[in-house]
Specification:
The complex is a heterodimer of chains A (about 240) and B (about 775).
Chain A lengths: L2 H9 L6 H13 L6 E6 L8 H10 L19 E8 L6 E7 L8 H5 L7 E3 L5 E3 L9 H5 L7 E3 L4 E3 L5 H4 L6 H5 L5 E5 H13 L4 E2 L10 E4 L15
Parallel strand pairs in A: 1-10
Antiparallel strand pairs in A: 1-8, 2-3, 4-5, 6-7, 9-10
Helix pairs in contact in A: 1-2
Chain B lengths: L2 H4 L7 H31 L15 E5 L8 E7 L2 E7 L12 H4 L1 H5 L9 E2 L15 E2 L2 H15 L9 E5 L3 H10 L4 E3 L2 H4 L1 H11 L3 E4 L5 E5 L3 H4 L2 H12 L3 E5 L5 H5 L2 E3 L6 H14 L5 H7 L6 H9 L3 H8 L3 H11 L7 E2 L16 H14 L11 E4 L16 H8 L9 H6 L9 H7 L7 E5 L9 H8 L4 E6 L11 E4 L8 E3 L8 E7 L12 H16 L16 H5 L6 H6 L4 E5 L20 H5 L21 E6 L9 H4 L2 H6 L4 E5 H6 L7 E5 L4 E9 L6 E5 L45 E6 L1
Parallel strand pairs in B: 6-7, 6-14, 9-10, 9-12, 10-11, 14-15, 15-16, 20-24, 21-23
Antiparallel strand pairs in B: 1-2, 2-3, 4-5, 4-16, 8-13, 17-18, 18-19, 20-25, 21-24, 22-23, 22-25
The chains are: A alpha+beta (about 240), B alpha/beta (about 775).
Chain lengths: ~240, ~775
């Protein structure tokens, strides 16, 4: 294992808890990443149960906040499920949902914006965008640069920038991300980036809107398929 | 949801701060640390840590979810005896390793600081009432058992007048019946009339046994208010979602566009309570055009024995007739009837579960709807279908029992002799077919009226006053009793009216067996649900309490109702339950993934436990007992008036279950679903000058609640959608605060004048109209 990778693992924070950092490092050392991973969010199947949101909190040791609807990222909310209407009025209305988290973009704006030039927030060979906290100066440039709602949040207590890690400690050890693991509706599908792209391309061929495809402007590790007739902005996505 | 409601600021109450602090101190912080330690150990061993499939790993405990009847396979990850993470068990062929939000958040229930920890007795001699501190003091289990047994003997005059005692208990039905029988009490009461007794009685009467819908393989799913996607019961959610992804057609009748409506091929915002009209119109269409599955109907049902009566009966319920009542165009009813009955579109099925909007015990006509759904399913062969796919399927469990030395009179016999405090004696089919269940709808009034006798003592297990329609009346009734016992995992408002409280273990704190109840066609299957964490206090299981009380009653009365044939006192005998499948509980625990399963191709029965031994389209038992043998139109009771102009609909969110704080007081669940609201159509909101996020008051004939408004387009303008199971007022519940329970709006239905033609004694839980105004 190269020095840079070792340093990254040493400093990888999965939830701001010291022991978890250690655990993450040791697990990750056990297996080398070999492929790029991805997740397909099939909004056509999402039942808005928010089990993914709960699983994320539990796996990352993030404290639940029972006081507000989750409509933005925070140091304890790496993912949330939004509900938005896309056609109306009654009775010609249909609702759908959009799970939101760090997209782990192919060309992450956050990485480009980072004044530490890839030494703090950076993209790993398996596609995961992570933060090396030792080099992070917590300037918030990454948050401001994010095109998807500012998926990186400053934990003022822990003095750490936090976000979805694509459950790097799980996926590098043969598991699926915690949110995918629990999804009871089959709306979250994990696989290699190639597999996920193949599924998304097939959906696109059938006429469904798709976001995040490889080779397109917003290519990312998280890909989305959603019902026909829904505009990108209704899914909180920039125009393709 | 619009921005105003979403992004509002809420000041964290002192209660919530205290709660979160407590969770952080001994719940989440420790949990996180132990999780990290556990995985560090795996890593140190130098192997890739298999999250699944290594059941001999000391930190992984095979168990099952006990939150709902689906009982999904679960794995509890623990360190130093404390569970720190929960995941699904991939060896469960139905949940496939996934968990719904309720199961996933179980840790917030297990380690909840509000849990009841010790037996307690009341010391405040003041009258019992809302807000009056009972002055709880901790007692030993020995004192609790002795006190309860003495009170039971006192209330019943040593078993001579058992009718003065009632047990309101969800679960352990057989042993509770035995305890009541030992004291001569006919009063075994459960909530089934508020939940699904119309379906339960209909299934027993018409197809001979209980059966649940298996959606595996469905190609045409027709829903009358059924929305398991919205409630997110893991197994049916997965099946329905899979069916939709595979291109099944889904037609959804519902005044509110829930999740199924949103994902359905067709959403039809039907007038509340008019589903029955559409179902009758469909039956008329299918029969008049002979579009039914003739082989199935001929071989399996009693249709041809009553063909003339059946055809004549339904001939009046034309789609045009149904249109006037339901506001669904006749052409749409015809189209859906034709699609549903066309084998090319099949297999088709109408699922039914519990409190489904159109079919559950929500309206005066729900019993007829339950019959109509079975009839429609029979017409397309979707009952006990060979192979068990896309059908109402019968259930399996090992079924082993413990033989006792002596048997008391059965509750059924005692009801016939004495009547019953829940009025079961007035409902012969409820009494005969689902004896050990019960009727909530009018029990408070009967207690107050001492009808048919005086009730002096009651034991409540897992029921609170919010479990009943018109909860304030139930509270008043409880305050007239001499002695009230309450047992649960978490505090409830009923504690204001209780004399003694018993703390109960939750499902991760004891060994038990999951038989996967109603969801396993194609398999014989049991799970070893192992104890994953020791109880933090002195909690016990309800079954053990029943045995202990039975033993003490036996000793006092000189009976042997709780002695096994071998002379020992009965106990929780898991081996006896498993005996028919030839495995002991210890052996079951040794199976690596904790799952014993045997693939057993689902075979259709050749004979049914009905009078005709067939599936009964024409209900012989109904006829024999003076009811309609075929479903007819019955008008919904509550209609919009000047004072209460809107139909009340009730939605159950995926993270919440009933009035139980196990989910509503769970911080993870509240993280996802933090606040209740009432949903109102935008045109209605405009008319009433109600804006998104405004605080409004909803008022029914029995009470009022104040809540925020959410304006949307997915609800009929004449309806308001309220969320079920939010808010508690008892101070022992620190997180789910507020007097916002939907129960405050639901009246207890009146007793019928003369014979009640509703053979299932439904509670009409949504047959309510309400008014709304900005406050």
């Amino acid at each position: 294992m190269d020095i840079r990778r070792r340093e990254f693992l040493k400093d990888l924070s999965l939830g701001g808890v010291g022991a978890a950092v250690l655990a993450g490092a040791r697990i990750a050392e056990a297996v080398q990443p070999v492929v790029e991973y991805g997740v397909l969010v099939d909004t056509r199947r999402c039942v808005n149960c928010k089990a993914c949101q709960i699983a994320c909190k539990m796996w990352n040791g993030n404290e639940p906040d029972p006081t507000t609807f989750k409509r933005k990222f925070s140091p304890s909310t790496f993912t949330y499920v939004s509900e938005c209407k896309f056609t109306g009025p009654f009775p010609n209305v249909r609702y759908h949902t959009a799970k939101r988290q760090c997209m782990h973009c192919e060309q992450p704006a956050c990485v480009e914006a980072c004044p530490q030039a890839g030494k703090a927030i950076h993209k790993e060979p398996d596609g995961v965008v992570v933060i090396n906290h030792e080099n992070c100066i917590r300037c918030g440039s990454c948050t401001q640069a994010c095109s998807f709602g500012g998926a990186v949040s400053l934990d003022e207590k822990a003095h750490l920038m936090k976000k979805c890690t694509l459950c790097v400690d799980r996926i590098r050890n043969g598991m699926t991300p915690a949110c995918v693991d629990t999804c009871p509706a089959g709306a979250l599908q994990f696989g290699t980036l190639e597999e996920v792209n193949t599924k998304a391309k097939e959906a696109k061929r059938q006429g469904y809107p798709v976001h995040g495809l490889k080779g397109e402007r917003w290519a990312s590790s998280w890909l989305y398929v959603w019902p026909k007739g829904v505009e990108n902005r209704a899914m909180f996505f920039p125009k393709a | 949801m619009a921005e105003k409601l979403e992004n509002r600021e809420i000041t964290l109450s002192e209660d919530r701060r205290r709660f979160l602090k407590a969770m952080g101190l001994w719940g989440f912080t420790l949990g996180t640390a132990s999780l990290a330690g556990g995985f560090a150990e795996i890593a140190q061993a130098g192997t890739c840590p298999p999250m699944y499939g290594k059941p001999d790993f000391e930190e992984v405990v095979n168990t099952a979810c006990g939150i709902c009847m689906v009982q999904c396979g679960m794995k509890a990850y623990r360190k130093n005896g404390r569970v720190s993470y929960i995941a699904g068990n991939p060896a469960d062929p139905f949940s496939k390793g996934h968990l719904c939000p309720k199961g996933k958040a179980a840790l917030g229930f297990l380690n909840n600081p509000d849990r009841l920890l010790y037996p307690m007795k009341r010391t405040n001699p003041e009258d019992k009432d809302f807000g009056v501190n009972p002055g709880w003091v901790r007692i030993t289990w020995e004192e609790a058992y002795t006190t309860i047994a003495d009170q039971m003997l006192k209330a019943t005059d040593n078993g001579k007048h058992g009718e003065h005692l009632a047990i309101f208990s969800h679960g352990n039905y057989g042993w509770v019946a035995r305890l009541l029988g030992a004291l001569g009490s006919p009063n075994q009461v459960t909530h089934y009339d508020t939940c699904f007794s119309c379906f339960y009685v209909a299934r027993k009467a018409l197809i001979g046994d209980n059966a649940w819908t298996n959606l595996d393989g469905v190609r045409y799913l027709l829903s009358f208010g059924w929305d398991q996607l919205d409630r997110c019961k893991n197994h049916p959610t997965g099946q329905a979602s899979e069916a939709i992804a595979n291109g099944a057609k889904v037609v959804c009748f519902n005044p509110y566009q829930g999740t199924l409506g949103a994902l359905a091929s067709q959403w039809i915002p039907i007038k509340p309570g008019a589903d029955l009209a559409v179902a009758l119109g469909m039956i008329q269409r299918i029969l008049s055009k002979d579009r039914f599955d003739k082989n199935f109907v001929k071989n399996k049902t009693n249709f041809y024995e009553h063909e003339k009566d059946v055809r004549e009966h339904f001939s009046r319920f034309t789609p045009e007739w149904a249109e006037k009542l339901s506001e669904v165009p006749a052409a749409t009813i015809v189209k859906i009837a034709d699609e549903f009955s066309d084998p090319k579109n099949g297999p088709a099925v109408i699922p039914n579960h519990k409190r489904d909007g159109g079919g559950g015990p929500n309206y005066v006509n729900s019993y007829q709807m339950a019959h109509a759904i079975i009839l429609l399913n029979a017409l397309v062969g979707a009952i006990d279908r060979d192979g068990g796919k896309a059908t109402m399927a019968f259930v399996w469990n090992p079924g082993g029992t413990v033989e006792c030395a002596q048997n008391p009179k059965s509750v059924k016999e005692l009801i016939k002799e004495k009547g019953s405090i829940d009025g079961k004696n007035e409902y012969p089919l409820v009494r005969e077919l689902i004896t050990d269940r019960g009727i909530f709808y009018n029990v408070a009034q009967r207690i107050l009226d001492k009808d048919p006798f005086e009730l002096k003592m009651a034991i409540f297990r897992r029921y609170g006053i919010l479990s009943f329609p018109n909860p304030k009346k139930m509270a008043k009734a409880l305050s007239t009793l001499d002695y009230v016992v309450f047992m649960d995992t978490m505090p409830k408002e009923i504690m204001w009216f209780a004399d003694l409280v018993l703390p109960e273990t939750m499902f991760l704190e004891s060994d038990w067996i999951s038989d996967r109840g109603y969801t396993t066609p194609g398999y014989q299957m049991v799970f070893a649900a192992n104890k994953a964490q020791a109880a933090a206090g002195e909690q016990m299981g309800w079954g053990g309490v029943v045995f202990e009380l039975g033993k003490r009653i036996d000793k006092k009365l000189g009976t042997e109702y709780f002695r096994a044939k071998d002379g020992d006192w009965v106990k929780d005998d898991k081996d006896a339950f498993l005996k028919p499948i030839g495995i002991s509980f210890n052996d079951l625990k040794k199976i690596p993934d904790g799952v014993w399963k045997k693939e057993t191709p689902y075979k259709s029965k050749t004979e049914y436990k009905t009078p005709s031994k067939k599936i009964e389209i024409y209900g012989t038992l109904f006829k024999q007992n003076g009811y309609d043998p075929l479903p007819s139109w019955v008008e919904k009771a509550a209609k919009p008036s000047d004072q209460y102009p809107y139909y009340l609909l009730v939605r159950r969110l995926p993270g919440l279950k009933h009035s139980a704080p196990l989910t509503s007081n769970n911080p993870y669940i509240l993280d996802a679903f933090p606040e209740p609201f009432v949903e109102i159509n935008s045109s209605t909101a405009k008319k009433l000058k109600i804006n998104e996020g405004d605080r409004v008051e909803l008022k029914s004939e029995i009470g009022a609640v104040q809540i925020r408004a959410m304006v949307s387009e997915r609800i009929r303008p004449d309806c308001l959608m309220y969320l079920h199971n939010f808010g508690h007022t008892i101070p022992e519940i620190s997180l789910s605060r507020g007097d916002t329970s939907d129960g405050n709006l639901v009246p207890d239905r009146p007793r019928a004048k003369g014979k009640d033609m509703d053979w299932s004694a439904c509670a009409w839980m949504s047959d309510v109209c309400v008014g709304i105004q900005k406050v």
